[in-house]
Amino acid sequence: MDEIVKWVIANTERIISIVAIIASYFIGVYSNRRNDRRKEFNAVAEPMLVILEEHIERLKSGRKPQVTSIVCGSLFPQEILSALRRRMPEKQANEMDKRINQYMESIAELNSDGSYDSAIKNASALMMLLRLR
């Protein structure tokens, strides 16, 4: 028993080094996976943010945003929305859908009240949700 204790005490530095190397490897792998997911999200979110910025500029100048997808009649391309949903947790994806619906409703109401404030507010809230990470 004394020999084991002496060996552990004599080799403490080596044991700590081995544990630190193994721990740093796993921390690096975890960080790389997280960074890759962040980069993928940012690559998909960037076109959506550009579209929203254009919408806000049009709304601030008193014009309605243009429909970007003739096929589905949406203000946003469906392939971008689908890609974003795949890269978001379910709770965030549901929040994004809710914000998009609010924004679409405020755009639909533009004809009735003539106020662009709610549309600008909803577009800004959607941009905050999709901000780059």
Structural summary, described in words:
The protein has helices at 2-10, 12-60, 78-86, 90-108, 110-113, 117-129. It has 133 residues and is an all-alpha fold. The longest helix has 49 residues, at 12-60. The protein is rod-shaped and about 90 Å long. The relative contact order is 0.11.
Summary keywords:
133 residues, mainly alpha, rod-shaped
Please write out the topology.
Layout: H1 2-10, H2 12-60, H3 78-86, H4 90-108, H5 110-113, H6 117-129
Distance between the termini: 54 Å
Shape: rod-shaped
The count of helical stretches stands at 6
How is the main sheet built?
A: none
Listing every helix as H and every strand as E from the N terminus to the C terminus, the arrangement reads HHHHHH
> Which regions have little confidence, pLDDT < 50, spanning 5+ residues?
none
What is the average per-residue confidence, as pLDDT, rounded to a whole number?
88
Sheet/helix structural class: mainly alpha
Proportion in helices: over 70%
Task: Provide a concise account of the structure shown.
The chain has 133 residues and is an all-alpha fold. It has helices at residues 2-10, 12-60, 78-86, 90-108, 110-113, 117-129.
